[in-house]
UniProtKB/TrEMBL annotation:
Pfam families, A to Z: DUF6290
Name of the featured protein: Ribbon-helix-helix protein, copG family
Originating species: Acidaminobacter hydrogenoformans DSM 2784
InterPro entries in the cross-refs: DUF6290 (IPR046257)
């Protein structure tokens, strides 16, 4: 298991520790989950951008058009 050291000023340290405490998480779990969520969000955005570029020439249909076609 790896160990990561993080340098923070006193204000940031207190804020992060208090936030984790309020959410009933130990500091290590909170930081790990937060970092992994950020990586997942960035990956999702990169994937969306790639798909958008690959399909930008495809015909788009609005919600209103779909509802009308379905008789809703």
């Amino acid at each position: 298991m790896g160990t990561v050291s993080l340098r923070l000023n006193d204000r940031d340290d207190a804020l992060i520790r208090k936030y984790a405490e309020i959410h009933n998480q130990d500091l290590s779990s909170f930081i790990r989950e937060t970092v992994l969520e950020r990586i997942e969000q960035d990956y999702d955005l990169a994937l969306f951008d790639r798909v958008w570029e690959e399909t930008k020439e495809d015909e788009r249909v609005s919600h209103e058009q779909v509802k009308k076609a379905l008789g809703l």
